[in-house]
Write a structure and sequence with these properties.
The structure holds two protein chains of two kinds. Chain A is α/β, with parallel strands linked by helices. Chain A contains six helices and eleven strands. The longest helix of chain A has 14 residues. Chain A is globular. By secondary structure, chain B is α/β, with parallel strands linked by helices. Chain B has six helices and six strands; from the N terminus they run βαβαβαβαβαβα. In chain B, helix 1 links the parallel strand 1 and strand 2. The termini of chain B are close together. The mean pLDDT of chain B is 93. Classes of the chains: A alpha/beta, B alpha/beta. The interface between A and B is medium-sized, with 15 and 12 residues.
């Protein structure tokens, strides 16, 4: 997983520690050079100096290959615009946004904002849990048939462990192609219990671009 | 006709030159306004300059009083955010947003937001965008 974190603060640093423990790759974006220098002493050279609402800065930070963008600044204006720009560059990115002022919550709606967390609810654990439970790789998009093939990797925190593929809710018109177990063997028996690091290949309709990540959340709750 | 502007700076002054003979009532809000600017427009009867220390919190009432609203601060992020915040509670108000950074301008132009940039800030275009 490659994660871009906009804003260096205590919460985002704790999140980065969690991500390191899970072996995820991440980069911070911040326009404060002092914060970046200090961060380098903790995490090394995983910092991009600049504004996260700048297209150029986001591209330099690798937004085009990123799986998650986390807007964790103390300013809702920056979180709002940077999430929109991130999604504009990489439509497949999953945006997680921190809202500092509750009165702004109504404007964070639409496809640019995948997951919203209020500042009074946020912990680094909350965000890392969202990331670790949504281990999805986009493998192939077929624009002729308007479908996409994705791979779901069962993480150690997944609630699917011990369940069968038949128990997983999928968007309408989805098709399970195969299950690859943690030893690398392809399994077409969908009544087998899922285990950590099992991989599921699924074909889903392109119109379910948003649904495909949300169904994991829905199932967890 | 009445127009409300948020932000006073050199772009605003440029815009005022185009619209001061068209609009009977021009109301301009900003957090801090220099004495020079206040004096400059003191003699203009149709221009009112209001120093307001929390425009963001008061966007609802500012937009309720407006017939047309031009968001012209020097901060692109603030302008974009103000646009969405106002749109959230007022879908009908004629809004025009200034975005200085060209890559941001292009993105929001594609989103079909009524945006303007330094490159298209000619009188004809501005008045068309303001839908005079």
């Amino acid at each position: 997983m490659y994660i871009i974190i906009s804003g260096i603060n205590e919460m985002s640093k704790n999140l980065a520690i969690n991500l390191l423990e899970h072996g995820d790759e991440f980069i911070f974006i911040d326009n404060n050079e002092k914060k970046i220098k200090k961060n380098e002493g903790i995490f090394g050279f995983v910092n991009q100096h600049g504004n996260s609402y700048s297209k150029e800065t986001l591209i330099d930070a690798g937004i085009e290959r990123a799986n998650f963008f986390i807007a964790a600044n103390g300013d809702d204006k920056i979180n709002f615009v940077s999430s929109q720009i991130a999604k504009n560059i990489n439509s497949k990115i999953f945006n997680i946004i921190l809202i500092n002022d509750q009165s702004n919550i109504d404007i964070f709606k639409g496809n640019d904002f995948d997951f919203i967390i209020k500042s009074n609810q946020i912990t680094a654990d909350t965000i890392s849990s969202i990331i670790e439970n949504n281990t999805i790789l986009h493998l192939f998009t077929n624009t002729d048939s308007h479908t996409e093939i994705i791979m779901i990797i069962i993480s150690e925190n997944s609630n699917y462990i011990g369940k069968t593929l038949n128990e997983i809710f999928l968007p309408n018109d989805s098709k399970i192609i195969a299950m690859i177990n943690s030893s690398g063997n392809i399994n077409y028996d969908y009544s087998t219990d899922l285990r950590v690091l099992d991989k599921i290949l699924i074909q889903i309709p392109l119109k379910d671009e948003k649904t495909k990540l949300n169904f994991l959340n829905e199932k967890r709750n | 006709m009445k127009i409300t502007i948020i932000g006073i700076n050199e772009i605003t002054e440029h815009v005022i030159r185009y619209i001061e003979d068209i609009y009977e009532n021009i109301v301009i809000y900003d957090i801090q306004i220099s004495a020079d600017l206040k004096n400059k427009y003191k003699s203009k009867n149709n221009i009112t300059i209001i120093e307001h220390n929390d425009i963001e919190k008061d966007l609802l009432s500012i937009s309720e009083k407006a017939e047309r609203l031009l968001i012209l601060t020097k901060d692109d992020v603030k302008n974009i955010f103000f646009y969405y915040k106002i749109r959230n509670f007022n879908d009908d108000l004629k809004l025009l947003v200034f975005i200085n950074d060209f890559s941001l301008y292009e993105i929001y132009f594609e989103k079909q937001i009524n945006v303007i940039n330094q490159i298209d800030l000619e009188k004809e275009n501005l008045l068309t965008r303001l839908n005079v």
